[in-house]
Amino acid sequence: MDFWQQVQTLSHEISKEVGDRLLSDFGSATAETKSDGSLVTQSDRWADNFIKQALLKAFPGHAVLSEEDFHLFTDTPWTWVIDPIDGTTNFARGMPLWGISIGLLYHGHPVFGHVYFPPIQQSFYGYWPGESGLEMPTGAWLNGNPIHTTRDQPSSSHLFGICARSTAIVQHRVPAKLRMVGVTTYSFLSVAAGFMMGAVESTPKIWDLAAVWPIFHAAGGHWVSLSNKDIFPAEIGRNYGNYPLPSMVLARANITGIFEPAVRTGLGLPGNFCML
């Protein structure tokens, strides 16, 4: 088994085992509020530790950055970035949309991602070398089927995802129906799979984005940094615990001007976007 097949197979096996355990806790977990206002459960902590230990056992020379444990990005060439439960609020309240996110970075560049949503049995994964300099496979899949962003023109019958902190966009003209799913990874991957035309997240963290980044780009999507700063490569020595990476994702670059005014005005953002 070559390296990339090992990476994909291990990610699938880990997320499936963790997902089966989490389904037994689903809707009954007791949630606590963290310092940033987000929720955490004992299920998050168990899953975080399980995934981390499984990855380090298989790849002892790699580092792991995780939402519930270690937040400092180091100079280790290969770094896994994990979110044990993306959508903890949904998970704790019994809403059947939450996922397990596992991404792999090479010198700070996301090159592989696997995100599994146990309640709806959807598994996304993809490879994308980007600016990493690696010779590697490229592509994005949902349940084994190739995915690509939509080539449609925006219309009132298409969808655009928003987050709880971007609801002001409702007051402005967006040429699509707005949807809030409460899970950053699923919102962005819905664009990658062609379900939605675009999506915006005001305060995502690195573990919300690392696994999605290669899948989304391999599917042909266009990523916009809303902070006018590069999101990746990750910075050595940075503590990502409270470091937001506001982003908008779109099906393709040539519709940016259609959505930019409403998003920028709705979020009160000055200046131009940084296209990634």
Overall description:
With 276 residues, the chain is α+β, with helices and mostly antiparallel strands. The protein folds into 2 domains: 3-146, Fructose-1,6-Bisphosphatase, Chain A, domain 1; 159-275, D-Maltodextrin-Binding Protein, domain 2. Helices cover 28% and strands 25% of the residues. The strands form 3 sheets. It has a 7-stranded mixed beta sheet with strand order 3-4-5-6-7-8-9, with helices on both faces. Strand 8 (139-142) and strand 9 form a beta hairpin. It is globular and about 50 Å long. The model has no long low-confidence stretch (mean pLDDT 91).
Give structural attributes.
single chain; 276 residues; alpha+beta; Fructose-1,6-Bisphosphatase, Chain A, domain 1; D-Maltodextrin-Binding Protein, domain 2; seven-stranded mixed beta sheet; six-stranded mixed beta sheet
Describe the protein's topology.
Layout: H1 3-25, E1 31-33, E2 39-41, H2 42-58, E3 63-66, E4 78-86, H3 88-93, E5 99-106, E6 109-117, E7 122-127, E8 139-142, E9 145-146, E10 159-161, E11 177-179, H4 184-192, E12 198-201, H5 206-209, H6 212-218, E13 222-225, E14 247-250, H7 256-267, E15 274-275
Helix pairs in contact: 1-2, 4-6
Count of individual beta strands: 15
* Strand line-up of the largest beta sheet: 3-4-5-6-7-8-9
Please state the second-level CATH architecture of the largest domain: 2-Layer Sandwich
* Count of the domains: 2
Query: Helix/strand/pairing class, anyone?
Result: alpha+beta
Strand content: 15-25%
Kindly report the name of the CATH homologous superfamily of the largest domain: Fructose-1,6-Bisphosphatase, subunit A, domain 1
Distance between the termini: 33 Å
Question: Looking at the structure, what is the overall shape?
Answer: globular
Q: Tally the helices.
A: 7
Mean pLDDT: 91
- Please write the string of helix (H) and strand (E) elements: HEEHEEHEEEEEEEHEHHEEHE
- And the CATH topology of the largest domain? Fructose-1,6-Bisphosphatase, Chain A, domain 1
Please give the share of residues in helix. 25-40%
Tell me about the biggest sheet? 7 strands, mixed
